Amino acid sequence: MIRSIYIDTSVFGGYFDKEFDSDTRQFFDKVIKEKITIIVSETITNELKNAPDNVKAFYQAIPNEILKIVNETDEITALANKYVAANIVSEKYLPDCFHIAYATISNADVLVSWNFKHLVNFERKRKYNAINLINGYKSIDIVTPKEVFIYDITK
After folding, report:
1. Cβ–Cβ < 8 Å for 8, 111
2. How would you label 76-110 residue by residue, b for 16+ Cβ within 10 Å and e otherwise?
3. What's the pLDDT band for 127 if we cut at 50, 70, 90?
4. Backbone torsion region of residue 79, taken as left when φ is above 0, otherwise alpha when ψ lies between -120 and 50, otherwise beta
5. pLDDT score, position 103
6. For the segment 87-107, what is each residue's pLDDT rounded down to a tens digit?
7. Is domain 4-148 classified as CATH 3.20.20.70?
8. What is the domain partition of the chain in residue ranges?
9. Helix (H) or strand (E) holding 39
10. Contact indicator for 111, 140 with CB cutoff of 8 Å
11. What is the 3-state secondary structure (H, E, C) of 66-112?
12. Which of 9, 11, 112, 132 is the most exposed place for a label (fewest CB within 10 A)?
């Protein structure tokens, strides 16, 4: 059973994106209805500063009782840097590594993203999890909002 989900910035934007809005809205409806903890990080709050107003307003409308904001720690920074050192992505994409590190160290049940290039990517997921296991952390599932739950397909 999923009780906590780390959500990256792309999912908040996906709420208003024609390609992803239907799946994203269905995902958030279920998360809010079932009161599943949404874990967000300083990386997300920093990225949202440059987001369109409707995305910011949507994020701010998430019920506080299900929102858990985690702060950056030395442990998170070190793990994110290990992903870069392993050449999973270049240093230019360090914020994506921070998302993985936050989700891992916060013990999220799953990381949800629409970022297919750096996060929801078969080869990269394997490499992130290899680094996690080598460093004594659990592996983390990295999926799209569409893959998290079994949705009612009769509607």
Report:
1. yes
2. beebbebbbeeebbeeebbbbbbbbbbbbbbebbb
3. very high
4. alpha
5. 97
6. 999 999 999 999 999 999 999
7. no
8. 4-148
9. strand 37-41
10. yes
11. HEEEECCCHHHHHHHHHHHHCCCCCHHHHHHHHHHHHHHHCCCCEEE
12. 132
Q: Give per-residue pLDDT as tens, 9-66.
A: 999 999 999 999 999 999 999 999 999 999 999 889 888 999 999 999 999 999 999 9
Helix 94-105 vs helix 74-85: crossing angle, to nearest 10: 130
Tokens of 87: 């050449």
DSSP bridge partners of 123: none
Which pLDDT score is estimated for 42?
A: 87
Nearest to 129 by CA among 106, 104, 153, 93: 104
Structure tokens at 32: 């809010």
Place of tokens 């680094």: 131
Contact 130, 82 (CB under 8 A): no
Cα–Cα distance, 18 to 21 (Å, whole number):
5
151: which 2 tokens? 């949705």
- Note whether 53 and 15 are within 8 A (CB): no
Tokens 């985690």 correspond to: 70
